Structure formats: C-alpha cells, structure tokens
Automatic annotation (TrEMBL):
Topological relation to the membrane, as annotated: Multi-pass membrane protein
GO molecular function: siderophore uptake transmembrane transporter activity
Assigned protein family: Belongs to the TonB-dependent receptor family.
Name by which UniProt lists this protein: TonB-dependent receptor
Domain of life: Bacteria
Major localization class: membrane
Domain TonB-dependent receptor-like beta-barrel: 255-722
Subcellular location: Cell outer membrane
Pfam families with a match to the protein in the record: Plug (PF07715), TonB_dep_Rec_b-barrel (PF00593)
InterPro entries: Beta-barrel_TonB, Beta-barrel_TonB_sf, Plug_dom, Plug_dom_sf, TonB-dep_rcpt-like
CDD domains: ligand_gated_channel
An annotated GO cellular component: cell outer membrane
Statement: the UniProt record of this protein carries the keyword Transport: yes
Species of the source: Caballeronia glathei
Amino acid sequence: MQSMPRKPSGAHPFKPRALFRLCCGSALASLTATAWAQAEPAQAASATEAAATELPSIIVVGTTPLLGIGTPLEKVPANVQTIRGREIEQQHAPTITGYLANNAVSVDTNDAQGNSSQTDINYRGFTASPLLGTPQGLSVFLDGVRVNEPFGDVVNWDLIPQAAISTIQLIPGSNPTFGLNTLGGAVVVATKNGRSNPGGNAEVSAGSWGRKTAQVEQGGTIGSNLDYYFTANVTNDNGWADHNSSRLRQAFGKLRYTDADTTISLSMGGADNTLNGSQTIPSSFLDNRKQAYTYPDTNQNQVGYLTLSGDHYFTPNIELSGNVYYRHYRNKNTSSNVNDEFGTVEDDGDIDTVQATNDQSVIVTDSYGASLQLTLLGKLLGRDNQLVIGAAGDFANSHFTQASQEAFFTDSRATVGIGAFEPQTDAKTRNENYGIYFENTLSFNEQWSMTLAGRYNWAKAVIGDESGVQPLLDGNHTFSRFNPAIGFNWNPTPAFTAYATYNEGMRSPTAIELACADPAAPCSLPNDFIADPDLKPVISKTFEVGARGRVGNSTTWSAAAYSTTLTDDIQFVSSQGAASTLGYFQNVGKTRRQGFELAGRTQYGPLGVAASYSYVNATYRSTWTESSASNSSADADGNITVHSGDRIPGIPANTVKVRLDYAATPKWNIGTNLTYRSSIFARGDEDNQDDNGKIPGYFLIDLDTTYNVTKQLQVFATIRNLLNKKYSTFGILGENFFNGPNHTFNGAAPVDEQFLGLGAPRGAWVGVRYAWK
C-alpha cells in the first residue's frame, strides 16, 4: 500500500515518482492486517512537488505484475488485500503460509505433505501447492517475476525469502493482466530496499521440536543515488512428528540506483532446503499421531535467481518499466511407496512379492524472460485516463528423470532398497509463453470510473523422450486465448467505494498433465510419464461485486460477493483409488467457486481488533465418473459418479478469523489469533457419499508477545495451538496396507480407510532481536 498526494483541483490525480516506487496495494480489504500501513517516506523531486504533499493522501494499488505507477484504490474493482512484511514480523510467523492462514481473508491451508514448509495455500477455493500434479489456480509473483515453476506450475513457498518481504498483495479473481494460471487470483510479493529499510538487525529463536532459527538483515544507502539490502537466514527443525524434519537456508540481496526520473534494481537470491514429510496417515494410526505411514519422503529444493528491473519517467505522465530475469531450479524427490503390483500375477506366472518401491525423481529447470510496460497518464474525451500497455515473454527448459528401486518394509515401515535404481523416465520439456496486455482506467467524473483490461496469451509446451524407449512421450502443444476484463467503481464519498467487475483467465495444461493423460496408460505421480493425448486449457470466468470504506479515523471494512466458473477443469483421476499415485489427468467439465467475504478492523485505544468471515461454495457443475475404490459408495468396478452440485473436496465452506493486538505498555504488545475452519470432504469422496463422512472442522488459538527492552533489544515469544487441539487439515481415501500387528505390512488384506493430514500440536518458541542503525 502507498499513499500519494492529492493534486489541487483541476490537476491530474495520478502524480508519479517516488511515492509510486514500491509495489502497491490496498489494506482496506485486508481486514486481518494488524494496522493501517503508513506511507513510506517520499522523496520530493522539486520544491513544487514537496508543497503538494501537504494535501490529503490516497491509497495506490498495483494491478499489473510489473512495478509501476499503480492505480488509486478508489478506482480498483476488486477486494484486494495487502500485508506488510512488518506485520508478518510482528507475529513472528515461522512460514508465509502460516501467516496467511491466520490473517488473510478467504485463505486456508492443508498439510497434505506433512511438513509445515510444504503446505498448500487455498484462496477462495483455488490452490497454490508445492505438490507436483496438483491442479494450480493461483499465479504467484516475486518482484514481477512469476515463480510458479514451469514444470507443473507448482509453488515452492519455502523458496520465497520471507525476511525480505516488503508487501504481499492478494488480488482476487481472474485478472487477465497477470497472465496464465490466474484462475482464482494472484499473489504478488514485493521485496524490501535499502532506502526504505535502513539499518540492520540480527535475530535468533528456539523452542519446541528442536526448532532453531538465525537471521541477519542489513540495508542502507551509498551516497545519494545507491542503496542496498541483504538478508540471510537458517532454520533447523526436527519436526513435530516422526520423519518430518526441515533444514532451510535462504539468502537475498538487492542493489538499486535511483534519481529523480530513473530506478534500476539488481536483485539476486538463493535457497537450499531439505524438507522431510510424514505423509497422510490412516485413521487407525491415530493412537500415535506422530508416526509416519511410510518413510523416507524427502524434497530437496534448490534455487538461484537474478533479476534486473527498472523504470524511467520520460515526463511526469509517461513511465516505462521492465525487467529481465534468470532462474535455476532443482528439485530432488525421494519417496517410499507400496508396490502397486504387489500380489499380482507376473508374465511368467509368479506372484509379485515385492512389498515396496523407492522412487527418485529429479527436476532441473532453467527459466528466463523479460517484460516491458508503458504507462500513459492523460486525458481521453476530456476525462482523466490511465493507460497501461505491456508485453512479456517467459521461457523454460526442464529435464525430468525418474528411477525406481525395489524395496521391502521394516517393522517401523521404513523402506530398505533391494538392488539398484532402475531408470523409468528421461524427458525434456520446453515452455514458451508470450503475453500482450493492456489496462485502461477512465474517470467519468469524481464519482464514477471504468476499467477495461485484456491480455492475449500464447503458450507452447514441447515434450521429448530422452531415453529412446518412450516415443509416445514426444509431443508439441500450443494454446492461445484473449482474456478480457471490465469493472466499474462508484465513489459517492471519500469514505465509501462500491464496485462490480467481470474478468476471464486461462490455465494451459502443464507438461506433466499432457504427458499423463491417457486412461489406458496411467502414470505414477510425480513419476512415470507414459502417453501424450491432448487436454483442453482451463478457462475461468469471474463475477464480483463489493464495497469498502472507513468509519471515522480508526475503523475500516470491506464486503465482497463473487462467482468463478471453470470450464474444462483438469483433475487427476486415480486408477487404483484416491490414495494411489497411479492415474491420469482429464478434463472433467465445469466447476464453480462462489461465495462472499466480510471483514473489518478498528482500534479502541490500546486494543486493535480485526475480524473476517468467508463463505465458499465450491462444487462440480458437470457429471463424470472416476475410480475411487476406497469410497464406500463405489460400484463393483470401483467407480463413483460425481454429479453436478457435489462439493469439491478439501475446500471448507466457512472460515472465521479474529486478530487482537493489545499494547499493554508502550514497550509491551500482546497478540492473539483465533481461527475457525469448518469441515471438508476427503479427496476420493468427490460424490460426497463415503461412509467415513467429512473431516471435522477445528478452532485454534495462537499467542504472540513482544517486549522492547531498549530501542535496540527486543525479546519475543509465540505459542501455536494453545489448547493443544487434535485436528486435521486434509483427508484422502485409500487402502491401508499396514493393518498387521503394530501396524506392520499386510499387503494381502489391505483395508479401506480415510487418510488424514494432521495439524501440529501445541508448540512454543522464544527469541531475541537486536537492531542497529
């Protein structure tokens, strides 16, 4: 969020320069934010502009991926939320996803992977997940660069440098200017700079489950035109459950040049993380919630990236911005699985007695691209007008290899390999994405404005077999579409805004979906690629109406109602039950997420209160058949029929969030988050008929406190899940192969069960931060 001066009567309302230098956003819609963010110090380009800053300020929102002038909030037809990095720091949230789950409206998470750094974010029923094969519905940007990995569109939240975050902006709907994958919304992350964040600090913390963290941060200026920023952190966490430890290493740096008309920024970062997961566990395992179903399951994520960006004002009304980036990403996944062929008759007539397989996959991606954006401020038909025109090209080369090793299970369900790893897949993919977009905001008068926007996307995915033994893997696919948007804003008073909007978006099928789409040749995720028939792109169409405003100087509120319909939605259809990794992707017709959200924030002296309620009705709108043999309603062939109106699993209908901040003294602050999430259906129960029923909802209380011993020294403490609730955030139906004595392997008689992704028990941490100028 930014403030900018309101020009005197008759002048253009969008006066640019230093006040627009940050990524912008609106806190009016982020009612769970801890406070109204204040404008960062502006640099006056001249004495004339300095005089103008004495007038009342307005809020500016960034509505395109690139940093630019932005749009005044009163003219933005969307319920945008903005979260400041300092708000994340105030709550001492260990992960970005954890903070969003506690504070952001219409956001919840699930722990399908069994590691707190690998959770899925669900926003209005759309997902941004690190799990390969999950249908993604949110686009995520870091300083204008899309970080949905090209191979699978996954989002690795652990690779985003949390300490470097200046703002996180949640933009709802199918905003076409953000390009591919913006079906339900965009998450835009902007990083800090040294001019706005001078000085430094060092922080350490420790507590439950052996979690230890250390972090350093430093920013400043060099002369009058250069500034720098750097941060690095390490985390070692043994994990609250067996075999779900984490080791994270992150670093980020930025060097900027600024003058009255130009900003040039060079940023770079990297991460090297090892994340172990405990998977979902059968309900019969709940006698010991810490145990893993099988292990090991490890993700090793590494990334290095470099971004050169800049903007230049040719005149106060003409601004050109752009970026160029390179990103190198490597993921190595090792997973332990029950052998899908156990107990079957082999070609030689023998029974397959191999209990398990160790699967190992490696993805290496080099991605690069560039964007250019021109903003023109002026008059159209005698009315104030802002026109943004942009173009972007994103390219990626990925190499995917997968190997499998036969194994057996120990009594503790660890896999022990037998022999060497045998290659299964060796493939290369090439992604090319081009986009041309525009956004025009026309002010009819002081009360009414209209926004027109659109983007033409052209995407190409080429898949090639490198092994020489899987020619069906070869394929060449192209997708293209123009996506429009229109919105209207009404501002009868400075304290009230109402809006209505319609927009469309597109997601092209990923390489992993295209290479695993043949029902006659199912593949194992995230592993074997088999065949390559066509899939249709997913098209989203969103309607939204809403309002927001102020009451007095300390109270803000927002309300919105929306409906997003997807055509040709893509879903992974299991061929051996929902918990099996064997299956294929297919278009399943229409799905819809619709609902409403209410939020408000106020300040009563030393007490700040923020509250939100969101309702999401996520349903299938077409009838289709899938294999879900572990569903009690399945027919003799193991199939279920999903009907129009059945609820989509994993998406809660109701969420309620309350944040309380109490300044007990000028030095001591106490905060609490109260979170309620309603029940969900398990994956595999798409027909909502399984006898296991829903995964129950839950209510959680988190506490945090900060005490400033001196201006430089701060101590803090946090408690998560204060009441030590036993709860689950995710569910899936499947076969439990470990129903022998003490949960040992019994492959001859598996039992259908509901598998659960468990939430963490109570945990507490303390820390110290020392700051310097």
